Every structure is written in C-alpha cells, then in structure tokens.
Amino acid sequence: MQKPKLIVDGKRLDGRGFEELRPIKIEAGVLKRADGSCYLEMGKNKIIAAVYGPREVHPRHLQDPSKAVIRYRYNMAPFSVEERKKPGPDRRSVEISKVSREALEPVIMKELFPRSGIDVFVEVLQADAGTRTACLNAASVALIDAGVAMRGMVTSVAVAKVEGNIVLDPMKEEDNYGDADVPIAFLIRNDRIESIALLQMDGRLTLEEMKKAMELAKKGAMQIYRLQREAIMKKYMKEETEEPEEENEQ
Ligand code: CDP
C-alpha cells in the first residue's frame, strides 16, 4: 500500500496538532469481581484492566517470602484489530507483558505483601496504536483501585516522528507509516515526574529530536496523570455517597 500523507496543512489526519493527545476517558472500578479495575479509552483504543490481589500465589513454589510477586498479562482480543488476531499469547504480547510488569514493579510496595501475588490483567478490546501505553495507564488506576500500596502513579504515552515532525500520542496510521515510535512511561509522585519507568524505540531519532520527544511525552503524561487521578477520586467520592449494595446471590 502506498504511504498516505500524514500531515496536511500542519494538522494530523485526525485534525490534531503535533502536541495534542487523543481524547481520553478513564473510569475506575468497572468490574465487580476484580479487587481493582479500570476502563480506559485513548482515541480508538479501548482497554479493560483488572487487578486481583494481594492474594495467595499458586503454584506455591512461586511465592517469595520477602515480597509480593507481580504478574502482568497483556492480551489482545481477536476482534481488537483489523485482521483477526489468533487468540492466545504471541511474541509481541509476551514482550509487552514483560516490559509493562517491569515498569510497574518498582512502583508497587511489594515488600508490604510477602508471600502474596498481585495479578494484573489487561485486555485490549480495540486497538489503534499505543496499546501498551494505554494498558499501563489503565493498570495503574486499577492497582490503586485495588488498594495496592504504590509509590506513585505510572503514566504512559508514546511520541512519534512523522514526516519530520515530533508528534504526541501517535494513532495507527502514524505508527504504521511514521519514521519512529517511542513509547514512554513515567513514575509520577506528588504531582511531579520522578523517573522513567519504560522507554522503547522503533526507528531512529537524532539526539535533538529525542530531547524534544521526551519533553513532549512529559507534557502529555501530566495531562493523562490528572485524568487518572480524577477517575480514582470520582470512584471514591461515589463510594462515600452510595449506600452499600445488597448482594444478590442467586
Ligand atoms: O499497540 P502498541 O503501539 O503498543 O504496539 P505495536 O506493536 O507498535 O502495535 C501498534 C498497533 O498495531 C497496535 O496498537 C494495533 O493497532 C496494531 N496491531 C495489529 O493490527 N495487529 C496485531 N497483531 C498487533 C498490532
């Protein structure tokens, strides 16, 4: 297929400026059976995150007597992409699960939960580039919703190079036909970016471009962080005002 024109009159294909995020929607506590959960949309990406634990680890030999074991499973639904994805793990999802777990692990206060396990499941219902970043954002909210003690929030966004421009939060066409894609996650603590939790890169950037990409990612991440916080606050305000739900066991 011929490469489409991605920037027209200084605007991107979906009308965004270079420094604009896609519309984001975040809701915490959407699943009754999970200890914590989150539904998140970032543009056309639709993600559900569910957290179970801290709970007993099975099989038991995986237990760590000094801290919690964190497991993270990234999964794409077969119907989430244009060409049906074969169900089950593949190299890509195993890689994304690993790097995402590693981004979250240092933020979770694992030492408070010896011998236990915390399982994070993220399901991509609809994908449109940047799913690993959207999933991390959802997972972070779900972990907080589960009451897991955290050192801060993990907030993630990608930056891309498209027709010579550094742009925030690339969508599918920009990811496919752009010159570089850089997913980044930050640890945000006390409303400040403290460190980088994940940094990957496809393609090539000059040092100057990389600096610009990092600045743009930081700006975008702070906006997403505020929405993550808002979603958590909303959930807790709701819990405070709501009467406890009667269990309707059948
Ligand atoms: O989603 P993310 O950008 O984190 O990862 P990627 O490997 O760079 O994939 C970019 C996009 O390609 C995904 O978000 C999907 O929209 C698409 N994709 C697909 O159509 N079919 C797959 N089997 C995997 C990815």
Given as residue ranges, the uncertain stretches (5+ residues, pLDDT < 50) are none
Largest beta-sheet details: 5 strands, mixed
User: What is the third-level CATH name, the topology?
Assistant: Ribosomal Protein S5, domain 2
Order of helices and strands: EEEEEEHEHEEHEEEH
Number of helices: 4
Helix proportion: 25-40%
Side by side, the strands of the main sheet go 3-4-5-7-6
Shape: globular
Number of strands: 12
Looking at the overall shape, the CATH architecture is 2-Layer Sandwich
Q: Assess the beta-strand content as a share of residues.
A: 25-35%
| Mean pLDDT over the full residue set | 95
Core attributes:
28% helix; 250 residues; 12 strands; single chain; binds cytidine-5'-diphosphate; Ribosomal Protein S5, domain 2; alpha+beta; 5-stranded antiparallel β-sheet; 5-stranded mixed β-sheet
Summarize the structure.
This protein is 28% helix and 32% strand.
Descriptive overview:
The chain is an alpha+beta fold and 250 residues long. The chain has a single domain (14-238), classed as GHMP Kinase, N-terminal domain (Ribosomal Protein S5, domain 2), CATH 3.30.230. The chain has helices at 91-104, 131-145, 172-177, 207-241; strands spanning 7-8, 11-12, 24-28, 36-42, 45-56, 69-76, 116-126, 153-162, 165-168, 180-189, 192-199, 202-203. Strands 3-4-5-7-6 form a five-stranded mixed beta sheet. The mean pLDDT is 95. Bound molecules: cytidine-5'-diphosphate.
